[in-house]
Each structure stands twice: as structure tokens, then as C-alpha cells.
């Protein structure tokens, strides 16, 4: 096995672009070292990003799977690794292992309606799915994106979300928990949007990403609309170390989130959703 | 042309209500229009009406002395606005502004209370529907308290 094929060894990537998203999150684009191969990935997969001298964290890929030459990650600063990544500048090096994990069932859902429900940083792992859907728009029925954030200042990819909202073939609804008087969008939790949105619950695939508490309430509303639990997919987070199913760090009941997930059919994890860190 | 009766009949809030009750309610109802950015409910003012939203979007606002108006909920076509007319002191607890041009049916609270006192079956139907709305609102507020997007 040569260096490039060993999933435990990080490959070097250079920071090529940094954009501030919100007060605590940013998007970073990475290019492979000269002559190195691009990392092909599927929507929903993640990389282990290594901040040299500090450590590694699993971060979803938030860019376009159709353009694998650039690796895009959107990162919320919460602790040492994400803080170190935030401190990097253009041209600095990042170690990358991956891509790892399962993907959103976008191709498998062709011919059906798609309902995406997400909150906060959860839009990042779903943005590749949005790109994939938009590139094959004619192959899906209604496409709905329901996105919740705490305040208007916490909305990710604001310009892109506005563009999606203006498209006649997408139904995009953004809601916040509270807003000042100027805000023209919705106010209320994201789950309150589900009862009135137009899609065929018997012919729909639902993709959910957000904190577990949001997942739980979203599933309840989708089930009330008649979406079968086998057509609901959720992305789960657990602390990780190896990322390849060896160390057991990310165990969730009988599953390893790094290998069997992070995208699970809701049926697979519904009994485990109450379990915190195993 | 649509009559008040059909507006009521078509609104999800009155789904399944008996004919004679819809007829009674029509007598308490009127159509109103609100321009974008206009306030049509003000905190502390008498709550004489509740509203069925037929078109447009409304923002429920609470006034914060340092931060100005804070939107705590938005409401859309198909929804019902206001239950302060039901119980004393019949006063609004928030401001409501049309975020965009709105068409509403306004139901006169006093007229309705009188009819509900006279016909308890109608009163029970109305109360059941409002209880459902109040419960859903309480549930949504509780979920909101969980800070859903913050891990
Ligand atoms: C499959 C997968 C995909 C992920 N994708 C992304 C992504 O695209 N973008 C992103 O920003 N993060 C993502 N995460 C979460 C990220 O891996 C963690 O936030 C990571 O632990 C950060 O490492 P750290 O050293 O900076 O902080 P840590 O030292 O691990 O954590 C510092 C503090 O933050 C808290 N914390 C840790 N993780 C979170 C969290 N997710 N939310 C809120 N508080 C937290 C901890 O409890 C601790 O108190 C993903 C996680 C998984 C498992
Ligand atoms: S992180 Fe090691 S098994 Fe998943």
C-alpha cells in the first residue's frame, strides 16, 4: 500500500480560499498538492481534517461532488481543532484523510419528491446533495428545502440560499427563532413548516441533518404527514478517531458512525436516537 | 362572486363545521385588507376580533425597549390569528404587522361570544378549535426553547 492509499495517513492540501459565513463559522476551500489526485466524494461524506500540531476533526464536505478538484468544508468553531483550522490563512497546509462514510441517497431517489429539512450548520453536509439534485433537476418531482437558524445572522450560504429561493422549480423556506423588524422571512421552528409544505408524502425521500433534538421533532412531523420511516434519512454525529471503523470511538449501538454512517436510514437508528455518547 | 359563507367554509379552521353554525358565524364576519408594513393589532388595545388569514403573511412582534420590535412568529394563509378576544381582559399581548399585502376575514369577538353563549354547541366547536391552536403554539414554543439548531 503506498502512502496515498493508506486511509490512516493524511494527505496534504493547501488552503486556497476562506469565506466568513456567520459569527462562528467559515467555509474553507482546499486544493491538493501539485500533481496529487483530486478526492472524489459523494454528497453526505466527510473528511478527517488535521490541523498540524493540534489534532483531527471529522468535517463534512460541503462543496460540489461534480467538482472534486476543490475540497470545500464549512466549519463551526467550537474547540481546539476547529479553532486551529480557523486560524489558518491562504497557502497554509491542512492534512486530509477521507472521504469517509455513507452518502445521501440522491440517485436512488430519482423519480421521487425530495424534502430536505435542516438547521444551523446542518446545511453544510446537505449542500452537495442540493448541487446534485439541481444538476439533475428534471429527474426529481417537487424539491423542498426547509432551513432553520437561530437568527437571520446565523444563516449559512446566504447568497446561495437566496438564489435557490428565487428559483421557480425549488420550494425553499427559511425560518429563524427570532428576528428584528426588518426580516421578511418566517419566524418559528423549522418543524412548523412541515405540515403546510407541498409534496407527496407517499412518494418522497426526506433528508435530515441537524442536532439530534431537531432530527427527532422533524421525524415526528414527517411521520404525521405520512412519510414512511424507511424513506427518511438522517445524518448522525459522534466523536471520532480513526474514521475507518477500527477504533470503535464512534459506536452507535451496533453501528460505527464513521463507516455505517454518517447517513443512516431512520429505521436503522430510531431506537438509538436517545443515546448520547456511547 | 364568493360569499362570506364560502370564505369561512374554505378556511381550514372551520373545516367540518355544521351549516347552521357557518351561517351564524357569517353574520359576525367581514373582509379586510391590510397594506404591507401596516400594523393592524397593537399591544394593550382592545381585542375585538380574530382573523382568518386568506392571503399574505403577518409578523407577531414583541417590543424590546433596547432592541426595538422582535418578531417572535410569522403567520400565513390558512392560519388563524388571535385568541385574546376569548377571555377577559380582551386585550392584545403583541403587535401584528403585515409583512406583505394581506387579505383577511375579521370575526367580531363580541358578536361571537354572544352567539357562543346562546348556542353552547357552537361555543364548544369554537373552543375545541382554539384549544388545538393554543396547544400547537405552546408545543412550538417549547421546542423553540430547546434551541434546536445548536447541537
Ligand atoms: C460525520 C461528522 C461530520 C461533521 N461535519 C461537520 C461540519 O461540516 N462542520 C462542523 O463545523 N462540524 C462538523 N462536525 C462536528 C465536528 O467534528 C466537531 O465539532 C469537532 O469535535 C470539533 O473539534 P474541536 O477540537 O474543535 O472541538 P472539541 O474539543 O471536539 O469540542 C469542543 C467543545 O465543543 C463541543 N462540541 C463538539 N462538537 C460539537 C458540535 N457538533 N456542536 C456543538 N458543540 C460541539 C464539545 O462538547 C466541547 O465542549 C461533524 C462531525 C461528524 C461526526
Ligand atoms: S472513528 Fe474509529 S471506528 Fe469510527
Proportion of β residues of chain B? 25-35%
CATH superfamily of the largest domain in chain A: Nucleotide-binding domain of ferredoxin-NADP reductase (FNR) module
- What structural class do you assign from the helix and strand content of chain A? alpha/beta
Biggest β-sheet strands, sense, barrel of chain B:
4 strands, antiparallel
What's a concise summary of this model?
The complex is a heterodimer of chains A (278) and B (151). Chain A is α/β, with parallel strands linked by helices.
General description of the model:
The complex is a heterodimer of chains A (278) and B (151). Helices cover 18% and strands 31% of the residues of chain A. With 278 residues, chain A is an alpha/beta fold. Chain A folds into two domains: 11-100, Translation factors (Elongation Factor Tu (Ef-tu), domain 3, Beta Barrel), CATH 2.40.30; 107-235, Nucleotide-binding domain of ferredoxin-NADP reductase (FNR) module (Rossmann fold), CATH 3.40.50. Chain A starts with 10 loop residues before the first strand and ends in a 9-residue tail after the last helix. The mean pLDDT of chain A is 91. Chain B has one domain (4-150): Sandwich (Jelly Rolls). Chain B contains four helices and eight strands. In chain B, the strands form two sheets. A four-stranded antiparallel sheet of chain B has the order 1-8-3-6. In chain B, a hairpin with a 3-residue loop joins strand 4 and strand 5. The longest helix of chain B is centred in the C-terminal third of the chain and has 26 residues, at 120-145. At the A-B interface, strand 10, strand 11 and helix 4 of A face strand 4, strand 5 and helix 4 of B. Strand 10 of chain A pairs antiparallel with strand 5 of chain B, so a sheet runs across the interface. The structure holds flavin-adenine dinucleotide and FE2/S2 (inorganic) cluster. Residues 46, 57-60, 74-76, 78-83, 121, 124-125, 237-238, 240, 262 of chain A line the site of flavin-adenine dinucleotide.
